[in-house]
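All the exercises in this workshop are built on plain-text protein records. A learned vocabulary of local backbone shapes supplies the integers on the structure line. Once this layout is familiar, the rest of the handout is easier to follow. An example says more than a description, so a record of this kind follows:
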Amino acid sequence: MSSHSNRGLCDACLEKEYESYRHARVHEAMNLNKRWFDQFQIGTWPRWDFDLETSRLIFSKNGQPKVIADVVLVGSVETNRWEWVWGNPRMPAASRERMSKVRDFGEEKGWERLTTLFLESDEYLGWELTAITAHLLNAEGVYRCPDLGAPGDFLYLTAFNTNFVH
């Protein structure tokens, strides 16, 4: 039995429960993103910018903002290592505070992937954890920003209050 489970489930049962939940959330996020991308034409804007200070994602064309979304940062992948924003003091306090809901949910369920600050990452883990976050925070969409200075490194975020700029 896992020392992290106060629900009396064995490790294999916790893993099976998590996998089922994860699978449902990933498909939910795929549908969510399809609506978000279609509604705001996300894939059509030639440029995106992320403003860490304001926690906004801005899509633009010819130097003019076209769509702006408030965001909550979820985590980052650097050199195949995931780091949750909730434990990173360099990230905006508002994101860390909102992300505590995900960590608390993981503690309640006994799911170590949601409560372990650093995880070994593959090409899917960031999307998986961001999909779970999108569900728990009731996000409009999810997005992955590449680190242009370090190929293969990414910042994952959830979008809220998305609007066209007129």
Remarks:
- The mean pLDDT is 93.
